[in-house]
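Re: the request from the purification team.
They wanted to know what the chain is likely to look like in 3D before they choose a buffer screen. I agreed to run a prediction and write the result into the notebook, where they can find it.
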Amino acid sequence: MAISWLDLIIVIGYLAGVTALGARFGKRQRSLHDYFLGGRQLPWWAIGLSVVSAETSILTIISTPGIAYATNMAFLQLVFGYLVARVVVSFVLIPKYFAGEIYTAYQLIERRFGRTLKIFTAALFLVTRALAEGVRVFAISIMIEVVFRTGVFPAVLIITLLTLFYTFEGGLTAVIWTDVAQLTIYILGTIFALGVAIHAIPGGWAEVARLARVSGNKFRVFDFHFNWHQPYLFWSGLIGGTFLASASDGTDQLIVQRLLAARNKRQSQAALLSSGLVILFQFALFLCVGVVLFAYYHFFPPPHPFSRTDKIFPTFVVSELPQGLAGLLIAAIIASAMANLSAAFNSLASSSMVDFYKPFIRPDADQTHYLRVSRGITLAWGGILLAIALLSQFLHESVLELALTIASVPYGSLLGIFMLGALTRRATGRGTLIGAIAGLAALAAVVIANAAGWLHIAWTWYVVIGSLVTFGIGWTASATGHRSAELRS
C-alpha cells in the first residue's frame, strides 16, 4: 500500500460521501428540464465554479505542474486567450442561447440552418467528447496507480461505476454541486501542499527563485517570438487560446449545458465571466507548484526518475504530505475526475436524447419515458468511455496536451459553424456544411502532415485553422449559392 491507513480511510470515506451527495438529488428529477438543466434554479456562482471544474479537472491537477517542471510557466499565455474567449461567448452566443427554450447548443444551429447541420454538429460533439473524456478517465488511473499500486482496469472501472451512479440519479444538479465541493477542496489542498514543499526546501522561496532563474528562468510567462511549431508563445497562446476556448465554452455541450442551466441571460454571463478569474488563478497555482517541485526534487531526488511528468505532483502528494491531508487531497483529486466525468455523461446523454432520440425515435412520448431512456443512455455512454480509457493507456503524451489536441481538431469546424450563424445573415445550411467539411479536411491534412514530419504546426493553431477555413469556404459557398439561385430566377 502506497499510503497510510488513515489516508486510505479518508479517501474511501470522501468518495462515498461525494457519491451520496450527488445521488441525493435524484428525487428532484421529474422531467428533462430537471435532469439536464437543473430546473434552471442553480445560482450563477455555482455554475461558474462548475465551468472551471469541467474545463480543467484532473488534467490540470496532474499535468500542468509537470509542464512547468519540465519547461516554464509559458502555458499561462494560453489561459489569457481563455479570458478573451469568455468575453466573446458572453456577449455573442449567450444572448442567442437564451432567446428561447433549448437544451443543447445544437438546437440553436437547427433554428438557424436546419436539421441536417444540427445532426452534423451534434454528432461531431458526441464523437469528440467521448474521445477526449476517455483520455480524462485514463488520467485518473495515473493517480490511482501512484496511490494504490493497482492496474489501469480496476481503477478506471471503480471510478466509472461510482460516477455513473450519482449521475444516473441526480442529473445536472448533482453534477454542479459535486463540482463546487471538489473544486474548493482541491484548490485549498494544493495551496497547503505548495506551502509544505516550500517549507521543506533549504532556503525556502528565495532558493526556489534562484534555482528557477539559473535553470532557464522557469517563472518566465511571456515569450513574444513567433513561429508555427511552438504552442506556448504569446501569439499562439493568445490567438489559439481565444479560438479554443470560444469553441469549448460556446459550442461544446459540456460547457454550454451549464450556461443554459442559469436562471437567465445575465446570470449565465456572470457565471462564465467570473469563471475566467478562477481559471487564471488555478492555472497559475498549478504551474507554480511545478516550479516549486522542480526545486524540491533538486534537493530530494526521487529514488527512480519519473517515467512521465504527469506523475510528479501525485508522487509528492502521496509521499511527502502529512497523513490526513494527503488522503483528503488525493480524494479531492480523484473526485474532481469524477465530477468532470459526470458532466460528460450528462452532456453526452442530453445531446443523444434531445438531438437524436426525441426528434427521430419517440417524438411524442411523455416525460417519464424520456427520463427513463436518458438514464439508460447515460449508462451506455459509461461503457463507451470506459473502453476508450482502457485504450488510452497505450499513448505516451501528456494527458493534458493529448486531450486538448483531440478536442481541437473538430472544434475548428464547430466554431466556424457558430461564427457563420452568429456573425452573418447570408450563410446557408448547405454552404455552411460544405465549409465545415472543408475545415475538418484541412485539419486532417495538417495532422497527417505533422505526423509525417512534413509540417510542424502546434496544436494551439488547430482551432484557428479549422474555424477560419470553415468560415471562409462556408461564406463563399453560401454566396455562390445565392448568386446561382438569382441567375436561375
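For the purification team: The chain has 18 helices and no strands.
Please add any questions underneath this entry.
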